[in-house]
Structures are given as structure tokens and as C-alpha cells.
Write a structure and sequence with these properties.
By secondary structure, the chain is mostly helical. The chain has helices at about 5-15, 20-35, 75-90, 95-100, 105-110, 110-115, 115-140; strands spanning about 55-60, 70-75. The protein has one domain (about 5-140): Alpha-Beta Complex (Sufe protein. Chain: A), CATH 3.90.1010. Helices cover about 55% and strands about 10% of the residues. Helix 1 crosses helix 3 (about 75-90) and helix 3 packs parallel to helix 7 (about 115-140).
């Protein structure tokens, strides 16, 4: 099993413990609180993602072993939680694994039904940025 798939399965398991969406949102926000601080070099306009209602900074770096490390942050608690989930699955993984792992774990925990249209749009922008960086890294 790819590490990306394993990380996604762990997230599904964690969220399956909660029946109430208030508890799932609290779990999501808690995940965001655990994000490491975004390095200042990425907190610039060039790293802002478009399509997000809140401010989202995003950057990717290819590591010496070929894996991609993603850096991201937001000024909104729920979005920080979404970022944390995406980074758990996709950061520090090989580009081929990133591209082979669909973000269907988000639907499996019910996020697709419980996010506003603007949050879903921002989430789609983050996923697109993750996949674009992996595609670019795979070509390099």
C-alpha cells in the first residue's frame, strides 16, 4: 500500500469515531492547530492561491530523494484543518504516489457534503496546486 493511501485510510478511521458533525469540525480545527508554522519565505503574494475565500499560502519543494514537501497555511481555522489533512496525505511523498492517490478520502469522511460552496472551491484549488506541483516534479 502506498504511504499516501495509508495516510488517507488513517484519516478516514480517525473521523469515523465521530457521529456528530460538530465533533468532526472540532477534529478538523484541531488538525489545523497542529500545522507547523509556515516559513516566512512562503508568506508572500506569489504563494497565495486564487479561488479561496480565505487567504491560503501554498508552496512545494522537491526534496533530495525526489519526494515533494508541501508548505501551506491559511487565516481560517477550518481551512487550516483541510490543509493539515491534505499535507498528511500528500506531503513528503513521491510525485507518482501523489498523482495516483485521489482525494476521495475527503468524501469518505463527509466533507464534500458539509463544506460551503466557497470552501469546496478553495479545497479544489488546493488539490489542483498539489497535483500540479507533482506533475511538474515528475516531468523534471
Amino acid at each position: 500500500m502506498r504511504a499516501t493511501d495509508q495516510a488517507a485510510a488513517e484519516i478516514i478511521d480517525e473521523f469515523s469515531f465521530f457521529d456528530d458533525w460538530a465533533d468532526k469540525y472540532e477534529q478538523l480545527i484541531d488538525q489545523g492547530r497542529q500545522l507547523p508554522p509556515l516559513p516566512d519565505k512562503y508568506r508572500v503574494d506569489a504563494c497565495k492561491l486564487s479561488g479561496c475565500q480565505s487567504t491560503v499560502w501554498f508552496a512545494a519543494e522537491q526534496q533530495a530523494g525526489g519526494q515533494l514537501r508541501y508548505f501551506a497555511d491559511s487565516d481560517a481555522a477550518i481551512v487550516r484543518g483541510l490543509i493539515a489533512l491534505l499535507l498528511r496525505v500528500y506531503s513528503d511523498k513521491p510525485p507518482a504516489d501523489i498523482l495516483a492517490t485521489e482525494p476521495d478520502f475527503l468524501a469518505k469522511i463527509g466533507l464534500d457534503k458539509h463544506l460551503s460552496a466557497t470552501r469546496r472551491n478553495g479545497l479544489a484549488s488546493m488539490i489542483s496546486a498539489i497535483r500540479a506541483a507533482a506533475s511538474k516534479a515528475q516531468i523534471s
